[in-house]
Amino acid sequence: MKRPISIFIFLFFTTFLLAQHSSSLFYGSRLKANTTSFLPILSGGELQNNFLGFTVSPLISYAHSFGESEFDYYSYGLSLAYKGDSKLSFSFDYEKLQGQQTTFINDYLEEFNVFPSRGEVKIVGDKYSFQDFNYRIAYNISKHFDVEFGQSKHFIGSGYRSLLLSDNSSNYPFLRFTTSFWKVKYTNLYTTFSDIWDFQNQKKKHATFHYLDLQLFDNLSLGIFESVIWQAKVGDYNRGYELAYLNPIIFYRPVEFSMGSNKGNALMGANFIFSLKQYILYGQILLDDLNISRQKERDENYSGGFFQNKFAYQIGAKANEPLNLKNVFVLAEYNQVQPYTYAHKIPMQNYTHLNQALAHPLGANFKEWIGILSYDYQKWNIELKWNHAIYGEDSSGTHFGKNIFLSDFEAENDGQQYSYGNFNGQGVKTTQDYITATISRKIREESNIYLYGQIISRQIISDLQDVNHLYFQIGIKTNLHNSYFDF
């Protein structure tokens, strides 16, 4: 206990000396911004603020939790960024975190060997540790073209969740090209992911993303999304980065079909944002597989709920100062993902990275409601957040579609390769409520150091379990990255 306290005291005073012009990017900052479409998760948002030159900021966090169990965890690191009048800009940050966590997060660490939204962990006894390294280097080629590369992550959408590509996973290496002209913004993103389902045998898989954002009107934008993910090695054959997938033109299905048996896992989707003054309506739809060839008139064994008809959608609304209530922010969001969505016949090609979903942390086969209410007063902030989800859990030896790490060709119901009668929430019906109440105070206006207190309630009810967790937490933080525990 003495060691984390001494580190906390040292870094606390160091922060007062060094932290100038830094900017912490909590998820609330992204939600409250009236921005659209493809958002990078930058290290603290340094490349987006108005400050020119170098910024150097220490990163610290320390928390003491009590309630069901008492524990401490802390982190320390450094953030460096540069933004100048030239065409070059970059950001870099390194953070090491260690300690203990809540009961359900400790169970998650032991099962998946990764910290939520961060990186692989080392577990020694009842404590864990991991290192998080992010960097981004951007260069403005011309008025219409930008290039960026690094190791970080991205987020598509305007909601709390993204069903297309979110910051739920760990960071990953990427190369990104952005083309902007008129009312069009087109993004090509090339990445490499890792599969560590077998912790001792890490495997690589690659992905390409295309996102076309159209500003149809001043208050309406429409984004068209597609991605394909494929394993780097099939047996003894090293596929590497398929040259066909380097094609910068949108729509991969024709490319996929031309590759025959070497096809990857392709997804398509759309994102829309409509704004009216301080009110924003947003939504997404994702299509994984739609097997329209299996129709009633073509298949004598046809019935509804074919397992390969996989899709997801989101609808939400948010507002800064609704009804002219000063310093108030509200959000209401609904997400639904059908069974087996994001999974693939070949588990290696599922929509994941380092044992974490690239979209929603619940995987698939669920419905979710989210509500957020936030109020700012001078340096104080009070936030209430509620996540309510209903999903179908697997029992022993079954696969009803929530676990996206399993092959969708192992679908349940009739136990055959072609499964019918699937529906959202099938399996063991489970209800989950995750509620947090947080009060925080900004210590210095320039440095974004926060003292906070938080109450966390997590309840899961089903025929298999009845879980109630209640934690109280106090701490200080300047950490830049989101870690999602509401799953």
Summarize the structure.
With 487 residues, this protein is mainly beta.
Give the SSE layout:
Blueprint (H helix, E strand, L loop, with lengths): L1 H17 L8 H6 L5 E4 L11 E15 L3 E13 L4 E12 L3 H10 L9 E3 L2 E14 L4 E12 L15 E10 L2 E12 L7 E15 L2 E12 L1 E2 L2 E2 L14 H6 L6 E12 L2 E11 L20 E11 L7 E10 L14 E2 L2 E2 L8 E12 L2 E14 L34 E15 L7 E12 L4 E12 L10
Antiparallel strand pairs: 1-7, 2-3, 2-24, 3-4, 4-6, 5-6, 6-7, 7-8, 8-9, 9-10, 10-11, 11-14, 12-13, 14-15, 15-16, 16-17, 17-20, 18-19, 20-21, 21-22, 22-23, 23-24
Please characterize this protein's 3D structure.
This protein has a domain at 144-477: Beta Barrel (Porin). The chain contains four helices and 24 strands. The chain has 487 residues and is mainly beta. It has an 18-stranded antiparallel β-barrel.
CATH architecture of one domain: Beta Barrel
What is the alpha-carbon Rg in Å? Answer: 23 Å
What percent strand? over 45%
SSE topology string:
HHEEEEHEEEEEEEEEHEEEEEEEEEEE
Can you identify the CATH class of one domain? Mainly Beta
Give the mean pLDDT: 82
Query: Structural class given helices, strands, pairing?
Result: mainly beta
The rough form would be described as globular
Query: Describe the biggest sheet?
Result: 18 strands, antiparallel, barrel
CATH topology of one domain: Porin
By CATH's scheme, which homologous superfamily of one domain applies?
A: Capsule assembly protein Wzi
Instruction: State the share of residues found in helices, binned by percent.
Output: under 10%
Termini Cα gap? 29 Å
Give the low-pLDDT segments.
1-26, 41-49
Number of helices, counting only DSSP H or I runs of 4 residues or more: 4
* Strand tally: 24
